[in-house]
Design a protein that fits this description.
The protein has about 350 residues and is of the alpha/beta class. The chain has one domain: Protein-Tyrosine Phosphatase, Chain A, CATH 3.90.190.10. The chain is built from nine helices and ten strands. Strands 1-2-10-3-9-8-7-6 form an eight-stranded mixed beta sheet, with helices on both faces. Strands 4-5 form a two-stranded antiparallel ribbon. Helix 2 runs antiparallel to helix 8. It is globular, with a radius of gyration of 21 Å. It starts with 13 loop residues before the first helix and ends with a helix.
Length: about 350
């Protein structure tokens, strides 16, 4: 393994940042010595990567499928009382996709008419509110969704589904477009306005088939609340399936990571495709912060304790591992022997997901 991923920079004071910026401008360089990992950190990171790679290769796709199958999905509705209460009001998309009480996002009531939205905070090791995992908005919950984004100062939204898939409605049209530049939603007298600012296809650095639209909205709501939000719509991620395990998702996560506020992620139910994104970022967070990468089943267990039944299929679980393995390969962190094992792993993976 010849090089190592750059760690997160340490926080510096405003004066230090200003001085470093001046020095960088003088040197015409984008990096500072402070941002570079030390040799000790490089060794520790290399050790973590090797451990993850070794464990993944030893299990192989069949072993990972068995591991996933052992983690049964279930609903304990005693832990989802607000979800049950909201059923009658038509605030839940699916009766069998629960929303845990312990870390659900609560809307400020007042000014909002109620505090329920089908959404949970999900932590990564260095950020207790890194994600908000939520169901796709319903006609009845578009206002709730946008008020949540205003309340939580959300700067980034990942939409991983389409409005309809295989002839079934999966998501309400909760955002404006070039033709209809402003949309308005109301919930018991409270109005939310969403304005279209700009839109375009994401241009990825690495080669990818992924079709992702990046749109900027301005959201306005009660009490003069206003927020500019970037919305990434992944158009071709199949329901209950996986896209190509290339670098596209990691590039999007790198863009979103800059924001310290919660990143909203939703598919239709907000657990399958959504859970896959969260698990990948959880591993990246451990890696970038120099922590030990936990065993995959332990990571998924921790995510599911926050967003019930996250990751719905073994294909999605395999996808998380394939992405990470491809990332390490892309970074030229494998010697020849590991590269050959990675190739064999990928062949098995492709047979299982296609």
């Amino acid at each position: 393994m010849s090089s190592v991923i750059q760690r997160r920079p340490k926080r510096r004071s405003g004066t230090q940042r200003s001085r470093e910026r001046t020095e960088r401008e003088k040197e015409g360089s984008q990096k500072t010595v402070a941002d570079e990992p030390t040799n000790i950190e490089r060794k520790a990171q290399r050790k973590q990567i090797l451990k993850f790679v070794k464990s993944t290769l030893e299990k192989g796709p069949p072993g990972l499928r068995t591991e996933f199958a052992a983690m049964k999905r279930f609903n304990d509705f005693e832990k989802m009382k607000s979800f049950k209460g909201a059923q009658e009001a038509g605030k839940n998309r699916y009766k069998d996709v629960g929303c845990l009480d312990n870390n659900r996002v609560k809307l400020a009531n007042p000014p909002w008419a109620h505090d329920y939205v089908h959404a949970n905070y999900v932590a990564t090791p260095t950020n207790s509110k890194r994600f908000i995992c939520t169901q796709a908005p319903l006609d009845k919950t578009c206002a709730d969704f946008w008020y949540m984004c205003l309340q939580e100062k959300v700067e980034t939204i990942f939409m991983l589904c389409n409005l309809t898939e295989k002839g079934a409605k999966k998501c309400s049209e909760y955002f404006p477009n070039k033709e209809k530049e402003t949309v308005e939603f109301e919930e018991k007298g409270n109005k939310i306005t969403v304005k279209f600012e700009s839109s375009g296809k994401v241009k990825f650095d690495k080669k990818t088939d992924a079709k992702v639209t990046e749109t900027v909205f301005t959201v306005e709501g009660p009490g003069g609340l206003t927020q500019k939000t970037t919305h990434y719509h992944w158009i071709d991620w199949p329901d209950r399936g996986v896209p190509t395990a290339d670098m596209a998702l990691l590039e999007l996560l790198a863009k979103a990571r800059v924001s310290k506020n919660p990143i909203v992620v939703h598919c239709s139910a907000g657990i399958g495709r959504t859970g896959s994104v969260v698990m990948i970022e959880y591993i990246m967070d451990q890696l970038l912060s120099g922590q030990s990468i936990e065993e995959s089943d332990k990571i998924l267990q921790k995510i599911r304790e926050q967003r019930n039944n996250s990751i719905q299929t073994d294909q999605q679980y395999l996808f998380v591992h394939q992405i990470m393995m491809n990332y390490f390969m892309e970074k030229k962190l494998f010697d020849k022997e590991v590269a050959m094992a990675h190739l064999a792993f990928t062949e098995q993976y492709l047979k299982l997901v296609h």
